[in-house]
Design a protein that fits this description.
Blueprint (H helix, E strand, L loop, with lengths): L6 H26 L13 H26 L4 E11 H6 L5 E9 L3 E8 L3 H8 L14 H21 L6 E7 L2 H4 L8 E11 L2 E9 L1 H16 L6 H12 L5 E4 L7 H5 L17 E5 L2 E11 L2 E9 H5 L1
Antiparallel strand pairs: 1-5, 2-3, 2-4, 3-6, 5-6, 7-8, 8-9, 9-10
Helix pairs in contact: 2-5, 2-7
């Protein structure tokens, strides 16, 4: 037996539904809300890090070439990492005995920090003084040794300026900083762009670390990303010359039948005049291949005193 609702019962059900609707909406809104972490503001994007890595790979190559020629020995520089960390964390990575210098970046007027492992100092100084580049004990530098190493840092700054030319930055070596003075260069909570390079020499190896202030990440990196991401187009004259040069390139080409399988016994007793029966239909077209790629099906013909190939149809149409 079906139950028939009275009007007052129907009105009560609608009223209950109306009263419940705002609660559901509030619950959904709370479910969609996500807490925002303000410490994540200004993070360098993956695209920016990719552009930074490409830029500093060039710096590493140039520094490898120039310092190897200057020192007259094998000298290899490789980019190890590019990351964004607080300045306090960068300070914790600096060894107790290390060479730390401040580098001024113009036209921003900001200071960056350069840290070089002192394990690299003895072989570099030994080479510049006419030695074989042997490593030595880890110790503080004398005044003469510090002057010699300062010339190396100036070369590093010069190569940084050349590599970062697309973003309009120049790097100027300021002075060496003592451990107690480094913490005053930037705020401990400031997010820094940290670049780490591995330096290898015949008898020693170490790290070169660079810490750039947040002003670089917030202003220069946006332009850097757009410059690297933008597709560079050549002028019409340049493109025409490139296309003309490409048309003169010669590729290896062949006209051949499809691959056929045959018994080893048929190949065992081959001699001049032997006719090999291929498991291929008599009307099968040959494949025209250029640079190892099959472009079309063709028929072998004769043109005057030369063999030739008459193109029948592209491979795509043949497969269709």
């Amino acid at each position: 037996m079906e139950k028939t609702l009275k009007q007052n019962e129907i009105d009560a059900m609608f009223q209950a539904a109306l009263n419940a609707t705002p609660e559901v909406q509030k619950t959904d809104a709370r479910a969609r809300a996500v807490p925002y972490n303000y410490s994540s503001a200004g993070q360098i994007s993956t695209e920016q890090l990719r552009a930074i890595s490409m830029l500093n790979d060039q710096f590493a190559r140039n520094l490898t070439h120039n310092l190897a020629a200057w020192l007259r020995t094998r000298f290899q520089v490789n980019l190890v990492s590019a990351e964004q960390i607080p300045f306090s964390e960068f300070l914790l990575r600096i060894p107790e005995i290390s060479y730390v210098a401040s580098v001024r970046m113009e036209p921003l007027g900001a200071l960056a920090v350069l840290q070089l492992d002192l394990a690299l100092a003895p072989p570099i100084i030994d080479l510049l003084l006419g030695g074989e580049g042997r490593d030595g004990a880890l110790r503080e530098l004398t005044d003469i040794e510090e002057s010699i190493l300062a010339s190396v840092v100036e070369i590093i700054c010069r190569e940084l300026t050349a590599a970062w030319q697309p973003v309009g930055l120049s790097f100027n070596f300021e002075r060496r900083q003592m451990q107690t003075q480094v913490a005053r260069i930037m705020s401990l909570t400031e997010k820094t762009l940290c670049l780490s390079f591995e330096i290898r020499m015949p008898h020693s190896s170490g790290l070169l670390n660079l810490a750039f202030p947040a002003v670089v990440a917030n202003t220069i990196l946006r332009r850097l990303t757009s410059d690297w991401a933008r597709r560079r187009r050549h002028g019409s004259d340049t493109r025409a010359r490139m296309e003309a040069s490409v048309r003169r390139i010669r590729f290896g080409a062949s006209l051949q039948l499809p691959t056929a399988r045959m018994a080893a016994s048929a190949i065992e007793n081959l001699e001049p005049g032997t006719v090999l029966r291929l498991d291929v239909a008599a009307n099968t077209l040959s494949e025209w291949r250029v640079g190892g790629q099959t472009l079309s099906l063709a028929q072998a013909i004769r043109q005057g005193e030369h063999r030739a190939a008459r193109i029948e149809r592209p491979v795509i149409e043949a497969k269709g």
